[in-house]
């Protein structure tokens, strides 16, 4: 008997073989729903619409604190991103180096978002920017008739100042106009392309991020694949079966990157980019699995707790279905 399940995820290259059916999890018929991450997160966190979905790592960790946690994850990470490059500043704000962020006004779409958790943690640990030394502003990045609110309710540490922006305001324009001094986010504000006032904090972000990886061996995890806990409890075998299928799909995503007969992607110097990435991060720069990523998850959980988003300091093992972490040996 085949189990029919829905899976909401963006159509990343590492998910393509799942989406197009080249990889089929044993005993499972997946309906792949290709949505932008923002839509998937909103619908899953608010309404639990899908059997399986990618989720913000931060949001998922927050759901584990609920009395009846609705999701359980497997060690598959659809999105990773070095986030130094996603910090933007107003060039007139008196910021020429990261340490100058002290005392500044910083915008973020949501305090609990995964990208700002990494950014705040790195700025504090590497550059001494304590969270109580700045003021945060939250809300829509771009103009919107609908006010942006946090997808999950949460409390804040007493010493952290977070102010929602007013209806009709947006962080992109506020950054260009100097109403905030910097922005920690996942996406680029439109004002980065339209206003000469908006620049990156790290103009040499590739070098900074490569040095960060060499020093920490961390390629930050943004998203995780999570199962609806009720579906998992009824069918615990799917955790391992899905983990195996996603591993095969990831392996297949590497193949076109090395194709020399014709370019599979529209990047004229793709081979050089692949070689440079492998030089800095290794031949398997994108890895799923628990042991390979335990140190990354541990650092994130440290930041998450320190920033007041976790009631207690979780351990990486607590995030995942136990049967997805072990395998048989002949």
Describe this structure in words.
The protein has helices at residues 16-19, 37-47, 57-63, 114-127, 171-177, 191-194, 205-216, 229-234, 238-254, 270-281, 294-306; strands at residues 3-8, 28-33, 52-56, 71-74, 87-90, 105-108, 135-138, 161-164, 182-184, 198-200, 223-228. It starts with a strand and ends in a 24-residue tail after the last helix. A six-stranded mixed beta sheet has the order 8-7-6-9-5-10. A five-stranded mixed beta sheet has the order 2-1-3-11-4. The mean pLDDT is 96. The radius of gyration is 20 Å and the shape is globular. With 330 residues, the chain is of the alpha/beta class. It has eleven helices and eleven strands. Helices cover 32% and strands 15% of the residues.
How large is the share of residues in beta strands? 5-15%
For the residues shown, what is the average pLDDT?
96
The whole-angstrom Rg is 20 Å
Low-confidence stretches: none
Query: What is the total tally of β strands?
Result: 11
């Amino acid at each position: 008997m085949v189990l029919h399940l829905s899976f909401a995820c963006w159509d990343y290259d590492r998910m393509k073989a799942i989406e197009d059916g080249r990889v089929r999890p044993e005993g499972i018929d997946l309906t792949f729903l290709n949505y932008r991450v923002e839509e998937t997160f909103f619908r899953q966190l608010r309404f639990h619409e899908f059997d399986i979905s990618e989720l913000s790592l931060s949001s998922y960790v927050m759901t584990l604190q609920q009395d009846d946690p609705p999701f359980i994850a497997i060690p598959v990470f659809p999105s990773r991103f070095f986030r130094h490059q996603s910090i933007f500043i107003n060039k007139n704000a008196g910021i020429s180096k990261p340490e100058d962020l002290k005392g500044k006004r910083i915008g973020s779409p949501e305090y609990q978002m995964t990208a700002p958790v990494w950014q705040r943690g790195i700025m504090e640990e590497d550059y001494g920017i304590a969270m109580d030394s700045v003021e945060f502003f939250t809300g829509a990045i771009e103009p919107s008739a609908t006010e942006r609110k946090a997808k999950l309710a949460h409390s804040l540490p007493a010493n952290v100042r977070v102010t929602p922006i007013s209806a009709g305001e947006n962080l992109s324009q506020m950054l260009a106009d100097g109403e905030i001094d910097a922005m920690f986010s996942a996406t680029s504000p439109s004002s980065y392309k339209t206003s000469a006032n908006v620049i990156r904090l790290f103009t040499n972000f590739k070098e900074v991020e490569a040095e960060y990886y060499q020093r920490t061996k961390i390629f930050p995890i943004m998203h995780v694949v999570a199962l609806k806990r009720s579906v998992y409890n009824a069918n615990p075998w799917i955790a391992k079966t899905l983990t195996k299928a996603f591993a095969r799909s990831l392996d297949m995503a590497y193949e076109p990157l090395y194709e020399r007969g014709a370019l599979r992607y529209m990047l004229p110097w793709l081979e050089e980019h692949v070689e440079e990435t492998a030089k800095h991060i290794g031949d398997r720069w994108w890895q799923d699995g628990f042991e390979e990523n335990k140190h990354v998850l541990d650092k994130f959980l440290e930041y998450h707790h320190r920033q007041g988003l976790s009631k207690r300091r979780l351990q990486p093992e607590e995030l995942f279905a136990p049967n997805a972490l072990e395998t048989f040996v002949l």
